[in-house]
Structures are given as structure tokens and as C-alpha cells.
Design a protein that fits this description.
mainly alpha, three-stranded antiparallel beta sheet
């Protein structure tokens, strides 16, 4: 998929975007993804296994993420996930789309540059 074509995938499901963000910096397994999302959102978003794992399966099919070797982990059932270059482009495109929305909201004085 060409770089400009990722915009055709937008807007992302917010939960899918959170999954991509959770693994953007490092490989994580499903439970760690869910905990990272909960921590990053102050508990506002909690992904249950019934929501998280279908998202992960679809992202694997779409080649946004890939499963990597779990290394020295004691639990052989645990799978680690990493962003692919395509997944990184999709996440970046969504972040840019959302940044533009914030810019627009500020232009209408819905947000100030710094809010307390």
C-alpha cells in the first residue's frame, strides 16, 4: 500500500488506534497492551479480551502488526506483537488526522493551547 493510500483507511476505530499506540514504542503481549491502554487513558478505556483479541487478529490479517517470538517468557501461550512499517504509517496518519481536528477545534476556540 502506497504511503498516501493509508488515508483511505481513516478514521480508525478509536480502540484500534489505542492498540497501535500501545505497541508503537515496544513489543507487548495482549494483557500488557490492555494494561497500557488503561494506564494511558486514566482508566477511561478498558479493553476486554473479547474486544482486544479480535482487533489484534484483524490487524494481523491487515499486516498492521506482526507476532514476534516471545523470547525467554515462561508462558509459551503468550504472544508478542510489534508494529509493521505499514502499521506505523497507519498510526501516524491517524495521529496527523487527529492533530488537524485539534487545530480546527482550537480555531473555533473550543480548546485553548494550554488547558488546566
Amino acid at each position: 500500500m502506497a504511503k498516501s493510500d493509508v488515508r483511505d483507511l481513516l478514521p480508525l476505530n478509536p480502540k484500534a488506534f489505542h492498540v497501535l499506540l500501545a505497541i508503537a514504542g515496544d513489543e507487548r503481549h495482549g494483557y500488557a497492551i490492555a494494561r497500557a491502554i488503561e494506564a494511558e487513558t486514566g482508566g477511561m478505556i478498558r479493553l476486554t479480551p473479547g474486544t482486544l483479541y479480535p482487533l489484534i487478529r484483524q490487524m494481523l490479517v491487515d499486516s498492521w502488526i506482526l507476532e514476534v517470538d516471545g523470547g525467554d517468557d515462561d508462558d509459551s501461550r503468550r504472544r508478542l506483537y510489534r508494529l509493521t512499517p505499514l502499521g506505523r504509517r497507519v498510526a501516524a496518519a491517524e495521529a496527523m488526522r487527529m492533530n488537524e481536528l485539534v487545530r480546527l477545534a482550537r480555531s473555533y476556540k473550543l480548546l485553548t493551547a494550554v488547558q488546566g
